[in-house]
């Protein structure tokens, strides 16, 4: 990964992306533990822009608690843009015979307070396509994914990366898997999420046809 000489995407040279993409396609998600090193997480944390805003307590069927900031990926600090480019590049290089996912065009930082921050089980809205990337920058919390044939839960930690299939990728009938995150333990939790908004960066996700 080209985040910089002192920062590393630690799975970039050792991870079998062909096999990983096969798993992502089959299960709808892929978990990569410790994918980013501490310096990369710190740089991405510092890249979060001001101001932060409170998340709406209810958004459709989702209930949540925390704060968020972000916007168009093309206007974000270079370290966030580079992460998005490198992830899509790695996936695309392994997409033999499969349409590569579209580029990310939005980035969000979310801060979940210790003991209270959370997001209930949900699918990302219909306007979220391609692949969704969630990086835990700091903190620990239970993360839950409802895969097609099983429910998988683990404690996500700093540097962990979760990839979720978006709506309409990798197959036309693909849907984002149901997922949730519990309250952080032993401190707050910050994540960075990269998405492809099919209506264009900043468009209303919920306006897309299901």
Key phrases:
17% helix, 34% strand, 3 helices, alpha+beta, globular
* Structural class by SSE content: alpha+beta
Task: Tell how many strands the DSSP assignment holds.
Answer: 13
Helix content: 10-25%
Give the low-pLDDT segments. Answer: none
Give the CA-CA distance, first to last residue.
35 Å
Strand content: 25-35%
Question: What is the CA-atom radius of gyration, in angstroms?
Answer: 16 Å
Order of helices and strands: HEHEEEEHEEEEEEEE
Q: Sheet with the most strands?
A: 7 strands, antiparallel
The neighbouring-strand order within the major sheet is 1-11-8-13-6-5-2
Total helical segments: 3
Q: Determine the mean pLDDT.
A: 91
Large-scale geometry: globular
Secondary structure topology:
Blueprint: H1 17-27, E1 29-32, H2 38-46, E2 53-54, E3 58-59, E4 62-65, E5 67-72, H3 78-93, E6 106-112, E7 118-122, E8 128-138, E9 141-146, E10 151-156, E11 161-165, E12 178-181, E13 189-197
Antiparallel strand pairs: 1-11, 2-5, 3-4, 4-7, 5-6, 6-13, 7-12, 8-11, 8-13, 9-10, 9-12
């Amino acid at each position: 990964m080209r985040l910089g000489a002192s920062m590393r995407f630690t799975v970039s040279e050792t991870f079998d992306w062909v096999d990983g993409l096969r798993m992502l396609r089959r299960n709808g998600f892929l978990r990569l533990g410790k994918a980013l090193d501490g310096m990369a997480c710190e740089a991405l944390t510092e890249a979060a822009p001001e101001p932060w805003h409170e998340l709406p307590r209810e958004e459709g069927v989702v209930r949540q608690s925390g704060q968020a900031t972000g916007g168009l990926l093309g206007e974000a600090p270079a370290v966030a843009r580079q992460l998005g480019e490198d992830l899509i590049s790695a996936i695309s290089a392994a997409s033999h015979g499969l349409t590569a996912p579209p580029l990310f065009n939005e980035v969000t930082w979310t801060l979940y307070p210790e003991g209270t921050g959370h997001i209930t089980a949900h699918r990302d809205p219909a306007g979220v396509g391609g692949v969704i990337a969630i990086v835990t920058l700091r903190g620990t919390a239970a993360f839950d994914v409802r895969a097609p044939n099983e429910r998988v839960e683990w404690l996500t930690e700093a540097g962990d990366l979760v990839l979720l299939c978006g709506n309409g990728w990798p197959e036309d009938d693909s849907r984002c898997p149901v997922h949730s995150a519990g309250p952080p333990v032993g401190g707050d939790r910050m994540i960075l999420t990269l998405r492809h908004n099919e209506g264009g960066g900043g468009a209303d996700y919920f306006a897309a046809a299901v």
